[in-house]
Amino acid sequence: MARLPLKQLLQENPKKVLVLDGGQGTELERRGIEVANPIWSTIPFIDESFWSESSVERKIVKEMYSDFIKAGAEALMTVTYQASFKSVSDNTSIKTLSGYDSLLTRIVDFSRGCIGEDKYLIGSIGSWGAHICREFTGDYGPNPETIDYYEYFKPQLENFNKSSQIDLIAFETVPNIHEVKAILSWDNTVLSKPFYIGLSVGDNGLLRDGTTMAEIAEFIKSLGNKINPNFTFLGINCVSFNTSSNVLASIHELLPDMPLLVYPNSGEVYDSEHKIWLPNGDKSNTWDLVVKRYIEAGARLIGGCCRTTPQDITEVSEAVKKYTK
Ligand code: MET
Ligand SMILES: [Zn+2]
């Protein structure tokens, strides 16, 4: 069954909450793919051997999608978070724009083949900071306003814009206000299909660069009807599980009419000194509880980010069913 256009689905079903998949990068790692390299989880697609039917890595990616779908995911992301033209051309043998474009098209078409026609495919784009591992600090240097964000995103955006397989473009883990402003300054010639912004927010409830949610909301309101009509969701991703529902509620209070999205990390806490993940100390926080709060706070797209697995998505989808009845 073919899917309805995303915007139509949301408009015709005001209570519909879409279940997203979990963290593809960490899930592939959990399944045995070595992702520690500058283009992270996109690495398996670079070697020509991936495209042969017998490839083990190809099987792993397919199974990951199939397991997220069995868990209840209705929208799944391409594994292209760290696959900007700059990252790919600086770190692999693919150096030309046309070679890059072919790579993305291959990944997108393969991902569509894995998920089928009835699910939504989201084109993942990591923030500018992701290519220098700054998505959790927001430190974009002394003149973040002078960075040419469009130049950086253009090749990936153009591919996703023209692809009939991509339903929604995701700017993920955006930590800096100047980047948010740049993305929202682009009209529908630059961003010609539904898109969202996932903010990278700390436990203090601030964008990683220190900007308050109120400043972001004011900026969005100031755009008035000049805002790109394809701006479909605002929200947070790769944020801590325990604080995510409070942050989302604060955005909802400021922008009550904006459809929101949220996909936090698993409840584990990263110990950067020992480079290990520790279990969630706060047992009172369950998916059932946070999903209930997300829905109360206007979330229309809910899933998991780093270290979340199909088991997490099963719990998310059960809670979504329960609280959207
Ligand atoms: C660092 S956040 C990563 C988000 C991306 N969608 C992934 O899980 O692969
Ligand atoms: Zn993440």
TrEMBL record:
GO biological process: what's one of them?
A: methionine biosynthetic process
Q: Which species is this UniProt entry from?
A: Torulaspora globosa
Q: Which UniProt keywords apply?
A: Amino-acid biosynthesis, Cytoplasm, Metal-binding, Methionine biosynthesis, Methyltransferase, S-adenosyl-L-methionine, Transferase, Zinc
The EC number(s) given in the record are 2.1.1.10
Q: Which part of the chain is the Hcy-binding domain?
A: 6-320
Q: Where in the cell is it found?
A: Cytoplasm
Q: Which GO terms describe its molecular function?
A: metal ion binding; S-adenosylmethionine-homocysteine S-methyltransferase activity
Q: Which reaction does it catalyse?
A: S-methyl-L-methionine + L-homocysteine = 2 L-methionine + H(+)
A cellular component annotation (GO) from this entry: cytoplasm
Report the protein name in the record.
Answer: homocysteine S-methyltransferase
List required co-factors: Zn(2+)
The reply to whether Metal-binding figures as a keyword in the UniProt entry is yes
